[in-house]
Specification:
Structural class: alpha+beta
Strand order of the largest sheet: 5-4-3-8-7-6
Distance between the termini: 33 Å
Order of helices and strands: HEEHHHHEEHEHEHEEHHHHHHHHHHH
Helix content: 40-55%
CATH topology of the largest domain: Beta-Lactamase
Shape: elongated
Length: 430
């Protein structure tokens, strides 16, 4: 985004209803807010239409755009609300040289505002913050959805609740008519008063946080809806073949372990989880006498089984809700040395997600009991992966899986005593 575009975007997004309370003794109403929309900054008539970026000093402007750039990069990946709040309080503290920053969120169930993230405050103290809408300065800002700047702390000490942070700047986390909570910022008087530029920038940060929260919440709802559909598809497989159903769940668990060991972005982890759960969806199209065959398959029967990646792709389709998993599902039986199927891809021409699922898929198959053979022990299965690293499997993926598995004592123990590892957390942010 160029400077001109940035300036335009900032002008468009800065809150037109932002108000900074002067809190001077001669105010007509000590709870009345000084409206920037009516008078402009420094009593400058708003009719002059001075662009916002000209009113903001360079230091604040640079910090604002640096913050926005950092958050925007993070939001290009899937992050949890908890991580967003943690990052946000740190950025606010740096941006405004603040000693204390708190994010108070409203919980409709309890009808209370409570601290969800904070910096410069003891845990024991932050956990006691609990206010109803309208209670204390934070509660009033929550209801008014207008930024409040307290200059006369002593005079307004009787309005502050002991159940809220001591602050000089209270910012609603709001966009439109929806208010999610309040940001409170406190800094020592020795650092000087907040400038009107800082107040305006801080108010914008409240709007952006509201938008970021809504984006993440929408992603969670969408992901949960997708996962419900995945479960339905898995149940469809399970109705025909219970082994394939639980095999897919366990492959998803192992695949996610590998992805996290490789420190892949959350978006990639989610793709791998969903693709792993659906990797054998094509077996729906395999005849029962082959799919449910109790013994080893003949060469002819195996050639039919080899069609399941292509069948899976045709089921999911190029425009379906899970079309983004198609490349992974199509290539999860390719070999690192190029000897796999269906297209004989080699090395890094195979999507990383497919290389990960290939390791998880083979490991799960090796360690599972089948009617015609006993499952391998943990040690033997890992040894087989190591032997075939570089030929059948990506060596980096094998090493990551070995580390992840050995570091997960619960799963390792279950495998050693031959328990079924079939519990998987479907949450996209775990």
């Amino acid at each position: 985004m160029g400077l001109k575009q940035c300036k335009t975007a900032m002008t468009a997004r800065l809150p037109e209803n932002t108000r900074a309370q002067t809190l001077t003794g001669d105010s007509k109403s000590r709870l009345g807010f000084f409206s920037l929309t009516r008078k402009g900054w420094n009593n400058m008539p708003i009719t002059k239409k001075v662009p916002v970026y000209r009113l903001v000093n360079n230091s604040v402007l640079q910090k604002f755009f640096a913050m926005h750039s950092k958050i925007s990069q993070l939001m290009s990946e899937k992050i949890s609300l908890e991580l967003l709040f943690e990052i946000y309080v740190g950025i606010l503290a740096d941006m405004f040289v603040a000693q204390q920053v708190t994010i108070l969120l409203f919980n409709p169930a309890s009808n209370k505002l409570s601290a969800k993230a904070y910096k410069g405050i003891l845990d024991s103290k932050a956990k006691k913050y609990s206010l109803a809408p309208g209670q204390g300065l934070s509660g009033k800002v929550f209801l008014s959805r207008e930024t409040l700047y307290v200059q006369d702390r002593e005079f307004y000490s009787n309005l502050r609740s002991p159940d809220e942070p001591d602050a000089v700047l209270y910012i609603p986390i709001a966009e439109g008519t929806m208010c999610h909570g309040v940001i409170t910022i406190n800094r020592s008087a020795g650092l000087g008063r907040f400038s009107q530029a800082e107040i305006r920038a801080a108010s914008s940060m409240g709007i952006y946080l509201s938008l970021y929260m809504e984006k993440i919440q929408l992603e969670i709802k969408t992901t949960n809806s997708d996962l419900d559909a995945v479960r339905l598809l898995l149940n469809t497989i399970g109705a025909r073949d219970e082994y394939t159903h639980f095999h897919s769940v366990r492959v998803a668990l192992y695949s996610v372990l590998i992805a996290k060991q490789l420190n892949l972005p959350q978006l990639d982890v989610d793709l791998i989880r969903t693709s792993a759960m659906l990797h054998d969806i094509g077996k729906i199209g395999i005849p029962d006498h082959i799919l449910l065959h109790p013994g080893a398959l003949t060469k002819q029967q195996f050639s039919v089984i080899q069609k399941h990646p292509d069948i899976g792709v045709s089921i999911l389709g190029p425009k379906g809700p899970f079309s983004y998993t198609v490349p992974v599902i199509l290539f999860h039986h390719e070999r690192y040395d190029g000897g796999g199927y269906p297209h004989g891809l080699k090395g890094h021409k195979i999507p990383k997600e497919a290389r990960i699922i290939a390791v998880a898929d083979s490991f799960e198959a090796m360690t599972s009991d089948r009617p015609y053979r006993k499952g391998f022990s943990l040690e033997k299965a890992l040894s087989e992966l190591e032997i075939n690293a570089g030929s059948q499997f990506d060596p980096e993926v094998v090493q990551a899986f070995t580390r992840a598995l050995l570091n997960n004592s619960r799963i390792s123990h279950q495998l050693k005593v031959k328990e079924q590892v079939s519990n998987i957390n479907f949450s996209s942010h775990n």
